[in-house]
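pasting Cytochrome P450 for the record, 408 residues
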Amino acid sequence: MNGPDILSAAYDDDPYSHYETMRNDFPVYRHEPTGMYVISRHADVARALKDPPFTNECYAWQAEPVMGGRTITQMDGLEHASYRRLLGAPLRGPDFRRRVVPGIEQASAELIEKFQDRGDVELMSEFATWLPINIMSTLIGLPEADRPRFQRWYLALIAHMSNLANDPDVAAAGVAVRAEMTAYLRPLLQDRRARPGGDILSALCRAEFEGARLTDAQIQVHLATLMTAGGDTTVSAISNTIKNLLLHPEHLRATMADRSLIDRMHAESLRLNPPVHLILRYAAEEVRLDGGVIPAGSTVGCVLGAANRDPARFSDPDVFAPYRDELDPGREFTPAGSLVAFGQGRHFCLGAGMARTTVNIAVNQLLDALPDLRLADTAELRETGMFTRRLKKLELCFTPKAHPTVTV
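structre below
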């Protein structure tokens, strides 16, 4: 008897219904179509994300072909620490509050303004998808007119990294985007080296490692990493937090009255509906877990979605319970948290703090602008995705914003 087929249409349609079977009956199993070992219990997944025998060598085939080289997720030691400081600087600290937060607020407000007079919105395509794109493209220093291109790039990169079925068209599209990015960035990098500004492109052009400036290829790798890390995950976090509030009116009322609860609602949404359901690791040596043995040299599929619903770690794990004892909103966006939504250990998500801020601002502004926001009668709440997972649509309705009548 084999464990669930994570490549099947049934699994994509509803992975949650398979998670209990995974944890109880197949806590460690070899997925025959891919040859990787799948783990799903919270303790095992947390160990795989932190313990040295589990490495990120899998990114050599999963990411490098489209990123153009080694990513920060493949680095360790001094190299990893140096690049983590470099890439993380714009995403935290006093400078983040001064320069980045106003930009997030403006980007969110501009998107809401486009539909608040209408009375209905499909939140995925009109808000959640574009907010992280608009924010990150501004931080990087890309022209506003190129945001649709930016979106197409990151979707192609994510699709390539999720391509466990080895679809040749998906692989070819990812490689084509890599070549397109190289040609696009060449004149931009020349300009930033000659006329640096305050954006991430300029910072990368000035950066050095071991006494040498970064090459164009190295800069492209880091930009592609930022694009893929900050896109789909934030889309899902925003939409799932809103969805869960609307499905639970008592928590929506409490949050409307006390906006400090947004972090708590966000954290519980990350547990119940994590943006990333599967992440890969590589077993550099044989590893023995309670449920079985993973041979040395194996790719390991860590099912974050199942780990975050493990009853051994969380009581009533299939219930949206933002006040649960196991959840500490002050810690869940740090490596000390109980969730595995942002990973754990030395490769904990670099942008977790920025994601927290973005979701907080977005939810605040949506509740302010659309105080009677509700699910549309046509809302289906269907999800898709094996690695990153998101709602296909989130159809909402509300009372349109009233404009004062001008009399003459």
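The chain is about 50% helix and 10% strand.
The chain has one domain: 9-397.
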